[in-house]
């Protein structure tokens, strides 16, 4: 069992298990990116061999109800593996889990050192060749200096974690609160309360994610994106897709230890101009919705890529009356995620998709 927003390494392992003849149950998340402990427990089966759940999401920072899920797994006799890579620098992971994994580079330790905690009583056997070292759990000689450095760096980070978490949470809360007022048509994603202190993620409508990242990089800000409009992937982030939120123009800000308020203020000063410049280049809509007269309208966006199908939809909608429909023809697979998410954000009705010989017809009804 996995949640729909696990790290790709976990999902790839699940897929490999499935290709080998096993089965995988995927548990969905809410719009904030969190699983329900009740739904997770209900999905456990008598033949479930392993359950996996991250302690906090690596893209949007949402914390998961690990302790509650662990209780359900233990009652069912199913071991729970927790991916604690994002949260371990900030504190312990509560709950009666069976296994816990993390990576030292996440807290400034040496890259390439992984951490695996196996609770006493949990059945554990390695895959692949082994020898007599570490009770048969690992082949070859361990990199003792790197392991010691990983432990020492974690201890050093955790000594300052409480104070630093409070300071960084105040800064990310400042970003969460002010970005929607500075930039129109923005959705801040992730749980506003149960979240990591240093991460904040938001999506800007009508923006090409790759171009926005370049504009921010030129201003001196290195941020990331779960947007499909980037050179690394032509498909949307599986996390944003599972949450049902807009993936276009996605920006993920991760504040490092020691980040100061002055840099956050400079980022907030630069962001509106960067977004406006990208939107202008793409021909994004700027006028408020008017009272249209048409009952229905079809927009041909075949061959266009994110975010252009959504831009064409937004420009066409004012031309139909309230209650009328706009049909967007698109062969961009990202449209299947972003058009429904746009409707939710803009309070319009997503009627649904209709398959065609080429592409898909996405039907939207104007409500306001």
How much helical structure, as a percent, in the residues?
A: 25-40%
> Average pLDDT across residues?
92
Largest sheet: 4 strands, mixed
Order of helices and strands: EHEHEHEEEHEEHHEHEHEHEE
Percentage of residues in strands: 15-25%
Enter the CATH topology name of the largest domain.
Aspartate Aminotransferase, domain 2
Q: What is the end-to-end distance?
A: 41 Å
Radius of gyration over all CA atoms, rounded: 23 Å
CATH superfamily of the largest domain: Type I PLP-dependent aspartate aminotransferase-like (Major domain)
Strand order of the largest sheet: 3-4-5-6
Number of strands: 13
Number of domains: 3
Low-confidence stretches: none
The gross shape turns out to be globular
The CATH top-level class label of the largest domain: Alpha Beta
Q: What structural category arises from helix and sheet content?
A: alpha/beta
Q: What is the CATH architecture annotation of the largest domain? A: 3-Layer(aba) Sandwich
Helix count equals 9
What does this structure look like?
- This protein is of the alpha/beta class.
- The chain folds into 3 domains: 2-151, Aspartate Aminotransferase, domain 2 (3-Layer(aba) Sandwich), CATH 3.40.640; 170-282, Aspartate Aminotransferase, domain 1 (Alpha-Beta Complex), CATH 3.90.1150; 294-365, Translation Initiation Factor IF3, CATH 3.30.110.
- The protein has 9 helices and 13 strands.
- It has helices at 8-19, 37-43, 66-76, 144-182, 209-218, 238-243, 261-282, 308-316, 335-346; strands spanning 2-3, 26-27, 51-54, 80-83, 99-103, 114-118, 186-189, 199-204, 250-254, 294-300, 320-330, 349-355, 360-365.
- The strands form 4 sheets. A 4-stranded mixed beta sheet has the order 3-4-5-6, covered by helices on one side. Strands 10-11-13-12 form a 4-stranded mixed beta sheet.
- Helix 3 (66-76) links the parallel strand 3 (51-54) and strand 4.
- Helix 2 (37-43) packs parallel to helix 3 (66-76).
- The radius of gyration is 23 Å and the shape is globular.
- The two termini are 41 Å apart.
